[in-house]
Amino acid sequence: MRAVYAIAKKELRAYFLAPMAYVVIAAFLLLNGFLFSLITTALSRPGATSTRPMALFFGGTLFFWIFIIVVVPVITMKLGAEESKTGTMETLLTAPVSDVEVVLGKYAGAMGLYVAAWIPTLLYVWMLKGYSAVDMGPVWSGYLGVLLVGLFFTAVGLFVSFASRNQLVAAMEGFAILLLLLLVSLLSFFVSAPLWKGILEYLDLYSLVQTFARGAVDTRGIVYTLSGAGFFLALSYQALQARRLR
């Protein structure tokens, strides 16, 4: 685990010693701040529904998902593709660390930046508390849903980056795969066969995050996202193995 920690620390240092981390976090907070202001403005109008603002903020709008599927590939695009371009991947592969440690270390580093981008959004909760009582149960479960989606999507981005040799290509391919995963959520509305409809509803990320945002911790959602993350981490390991054999 010491090697995993060292690699994760190296990745986080690389993020925050360059403008990338600050640009990503600033853009993410600017867009989310705009979204939060739209939600609170809409819900404060006369006749508006009694929906909790944070329930809408966590996956209740299309903007939330657009931000996620854009930001995650930007975070992960350099993890493997940039090292291949600069030649530092070969140095890393000859170091006394296993491929599993490399995958987990880079994954942890990317997740560190993802979490860092979300932490300032706790200010929104603090702002809401100044105007009304806030039930923190759904808020914390909503953040859990966001974390689970991040674990899944970051693993996808890591695999794509290891499989690519160009950062831009890795970002575009990562965006395409994440968009495809979200489109699966829409298919359940068009399928009538009980078996397929049940499968597609199980894979529905939109409903998953909304369930967590309402305060219900769904074990099916936990199993799905963690299984998806594990699957793509395994693919990342295989992609790294393929590089070692070249």
Evaluate the radius of gyration: 19 Å
Distance from N terminus to C terminus (CA atoms, Å) equals: 27 Å
Helix content: over 70%
Structural class: mainly alpha
Mean pLDDT: 83
Report the count of strand segments: 0
How many structural domains? Answer: 1
Any overview of this molecule?
The structure is a single chain. The chain is mainly α and 246 residues long. It has one domain (2-245). It is 79% helix and 0% strand. It contains 13 helices and no strands. It has helices spanning 2-16, 19-43, 53-57, 62-76, 81-86, 88-93, 99-118, 122-129, 136-163, 167-187, 194-202, 205-213, 219-245. Helix 2 (19-43) crosses helix 7 (99-118). It is globular. The two termini are 27 Å apart. The mean pLDDT is 83.
Short précis:
This protein has 246 residues and is an all-alpha fold. The chain has helices spanning 2-16, 19-43, 53-57, 62-76, 81-86, 88-93, 99-118, 122-129, 136-163, 167-187, 194-202, 205-213, 219-245.
List keywords for this structure.
246 residues; mainly alpha; 13 helices
Layout: helices, strands, pairs:
Blueprint: H1 2-16, H2 19-43, H3 53-57, H4 62-76, H5 81-86, H6 88-93, H7 99-118, H8 122-129, H9 136-163, H10 167-187, H11 194-202, H12 205-213, H13 219-245
